Amino acid sequence: MSSKPVLFSHIYILMSNTYTTYTIAGKVDGFGSQYQAIMSGIAYCKFYNYNYIHTPFKRLSHSVNFKSLNNFIGIPIVLNQNEIKIDITEPFSNEVHYSENPSIYYTKELIEILKKYYYSTPKPQIQNPDIAIHIRRGDVSINKYQGRYNPNSYYNKIIHFLNTTYPQFNITIFSEGSLVDFEDIIGKNLSFKLNENIEETFHSLVSAKVLITARSSFSYSAALLNSNEIYYLDFWHKPLNNWKNIKDYID
After folding, report:
1. Which of 102, 94, 84 shows the shortest CA–CA distance to 41?
2. Across residues 155-182, what is the average pLDDT?
3. Domains in the chain, start-ordered, CATH in brackets?
4. What is the pTM of this model?
């Protein structure tokens, strides 16, 4: 067989048994976590010159429509996938996920590949937010998954910084729950979008002029696709080199 790469729907399959085939499969949690896992696998394969064979979502938690989201992320499936022997199957690339310097893997070239996939399918019509803040709530609270939780008082510090640094920008908070849960959050030019459609919410984070991530794979994945300014909250998934750590800008 030839060892030259052959293009199948934007994915290069190196047609030789000397190349390792690799896929991401087996996770059963939420969209953000599974999408980030797929991204980590593509980045891992790009770094090691492996053949990434895409396995689509089979199940997503919270009763989310996985078929729609398979189309939403735009990563194509190889036509003869069932005939390809997969050498390595992992739920995520541990090496990429927990790297102290993920920019080694998420290079500009790799991110452009991810963006090409993402924008290859239709996206919701939204009004691009100036500043998008993702606040992780829902299944996260002061009593549950505390490592992912930041209190509203912490976000007041962030909003004060944003109002001062970007006085003309509107700020939209994307989260779950009700307005009562956020009644102690104060600031100028502030609005909320709660419990919104997952595709609209995610694309809003991708499209924002300024994105403030949560301790969440949902907004981390969006940040990887966002070409603008990213402020990152400390998390076990480390930031890219061009992201700013929000703790450096608030008291």
Report:
1. 94
2. 94
3. 5-118 (no CATH), 131-248 (3.40.50.2000)
4. 0.89
